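thread from #wetlab-drylab

HS: before we spend reagent money on co-crystallization trials with magnesium ion, can we at least see a predicted complex? here's what I'd submit
DV: go for it
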Amino acid sequence: MTTKKEDSCIRNDSNDRKSVKILILGDFGIGKTSIIKTYLELDYTPDDEENIFEEYRARIKYNGNEIDVGLYDSSPGPSAPERRKCYPSDVNTVLICFSIPHHESLKSVYNLWIHEVRAHYGKLMPIFLVGLRSDLRLFKSHIDGSHIHFDFRMVEKSEAEDIYIKYHFHGDYMECSAYDRSSVVNVINEAFFAAMRD
Ligand SMILES: Nc1nc2c(ncn2[C@@H]2O[C@H](COP(=O)(O)OP(=O)(O)OP(=O)(O)O)[C@@H](O)[C@H]2O)c(=O)[nH]1
Ligand SMILES: [Mg+2]
């Protein structure tokens, strides 16, 4: 797999499905960049750039062809109007993410992100709901066993699935962890397959 980071708001007019673009959105600091870097096997370093959208490149073999895959990382940006001006136009699939230990980030999914994405890309765009930091579910049960207490409650799978059903997300509700790498490849692959089918 080759990787390359591109500037924000790059356009790609290819419509022949030799390339696809996947956009990853959600609140600040929930782990969006981490899943991209885990997928691309890049070392994690905190974001040092101001761009709202940045593109990373990968290649995936599909039915004997090499497909270029653009992974658009995002940051909520300084304001919603600024962000809305800059949405990439060539997106095939969107992953709306939240952090499993942060209920507020799930609220943003249904109060903000799903509406903004549908307003921008229309109702035919495949949009997945993805819970990030799933490793903390295990961490929680571990620390319960050793009497260390958390003062927060995880978003339960059933709560996320209710949102997924209510807002008509695409495919299945998915969870992954950049920390223990579980399901990251599966999440990106599901987005890729949806992009190839749309
Ligand atoms: N436990 C755990 N921590 C994670 C995981 N993914 C990211 N983090 C931590 O969450 C913090 C933020 O991760 P980022 O990937 O930079 O989050 P982001 O959504 O890209 O942040 P912004 O670009 O600022 O919006 C970092 O300190 C990571 O170490 C994960 O899967 N599990
Ligand atoms: Mg980031």
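DV: Helices lie at 32-39, 80-85, 103-121, 135-145, 157-166, 184-197.
HS: ok that's useful, forwarding to the group
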